[in-house]
Amino acid sequence: CALPIFAHKTEARALALDVKDEDAARAAFRTVSANALAHTPSAVIHGVLVQRMAKPGRELIAGITNSSFGPMVMVGLGGIHAEVLSDSVLAPAPLTADTALGMLSRLRGYKLLTGSRGEPAGDVDMVVDLLIRLSHLAWDAREVIAELDVNPLIAHKVGMGVTIVDALAVKRQ
Question: pLDDT at position 7, please?
């Protein structure tokens, strides 16, 4: 993953997945850096983020925003298709477990999270827990954070938790 100046690293091709060894990491660094500069020639590259490859699961998006209605929490189907799918739900912070679960159940793609057509169910309880925690962050940091996007948030099989792969925070002006 490269550079905090890119909200969508895939569009800049500033992302390398499943890098197996040191040689591949060096090659990925060169490629990611070159792609980042090609996308944004004025970019100053200070380094790249290297992290463990996340285990597979259902990709979601979650976030917080401070609107004229106060701090809000969002959840939806995520990953690189978040904007295409437009399947998200908003609720005011802070959330209860019932509200967080209700948000998830209102998603058109909720059955993808609960298991369908032979796919295992995702760890809904951990997604609910994460949404509650995000809601408290939204409330507690409402004077500091304008918005925060967690995308993708991967819900693994039941009992296996969730992984935050990437996040972007924007400070309030």
Answer: 60
Report the chain's terminal Cα–Cα distance, integer Å. 27
Q: How buried is 148 (Cβ within 10 angstroms: 0-12 exposed, 13-18 middle, 19+ buried)?
A: buried
Q: How far apart are CA 116 and CA 86, in angstroms?
A: 20
Q: Is there a contact between 87 and 156 (Cβ–Cβ < 8 Å)?
A: no
Q: Are strands 88-92 and 167-171 parallel, antiparallel or unpaired?
A: unpaired
Q: How far is CA 4 from the centre of its chain?
A: 14
As a whole number of angstroms, the distance between CA 50 and CA 71 comes to 31
* Structure token digits, residue 29: 């660094």
Task: Please write the tens of the pLDDT for every residue from 95-144.
Answer: 999 999 999 999 999 999 999 888 899 999 999 999 999 999 999 999 99
For residue 68, CA distances in Å to 13, 96, 125, 131, 157 come to: 35, 21, 30, 21, 37
